[in-house]
Amino acid sequence: MALQNKHFQKRDAILKCLCSTDTHPSADWIYEQLRQQDANISLATVYRNLALFKKQGLIQSIATVNGVERFDGNTAPHVHFICTGCDAVQDLSNIQVPQELCSTAGKTAGARIEGCQLSFTGLCGNCQKS
Q1: Domains of the chain, residue spans
Q2: Chain centroid offset of residue 28 CA
Q3: Residue range 32-62, pLDDT digits in tens
Q4: Phi and psi for 57 in degrees, rounded to 5?
Q5: Cβ proximity of 11 and 30 under 8 Å
Q6: What is the pLDDT of residues 58-85, one digit of tens each?
Q7: Which overall architecture, per CATH, does domain 1-60 show?
């Protein structure tokens, strides 16, 4: 029973770590944060639990940025900006996902749309200065 409890503690720690940041981290970033608290956590445990959380709908995968999958604990429909210079991912909370776009996509595909991710890419202000 104690082993199973440790398993759930690690799972909870992974989800809490992801949901406590708005940086849209990678599995490696989450692992590095948690390793400071628990030297026994493995990168495989982080990946396995992130896959489980995605399947359960608790988190979402935003994009693969420069070859690295990035995650978000906020599963409500919202818009992202991804910097192609520094790989930063940020929420654009003042922009709503257009419902007419979802409706048009559903009609065009002949499908029931269950979710939408809208992302913009470009250079952030800091990268434009560089």
Answers
A1: 1-60, 76-130
A2: 13
A3: 999 999 888 999 999 999 999 999 999 999 9
A4: 80, 15
A5: no
A6: 999 999 999 999 999 999 889 999 999 9
A7: Orthogonal Bundle (1.10)
Number of H helices, E strands in the chain: 5, 5
DSSP 65-119: ETTEEEEES--S--EEEEETTT--EEE-TTSPPPHHHHHHHHHHHTS------EE
Q: Roughly what angle, to the nearest 10 degrees, separates helices 2-19 and 43-56? A: 70
What residue has token string 């257009």?
98
What's the pLDDT band for 4 if we cut at 50, 70, 90? low
Strands 118-122 and 89-91, how do they pair? unpaired
- Check if the beta carbon of residue 66 is closer than 8 Å to that of residue 87: yes
The whole-number pLDDT of residue 53 equals 97
Count other Cβ atoms within 10 Å, centred on residue 106: 14
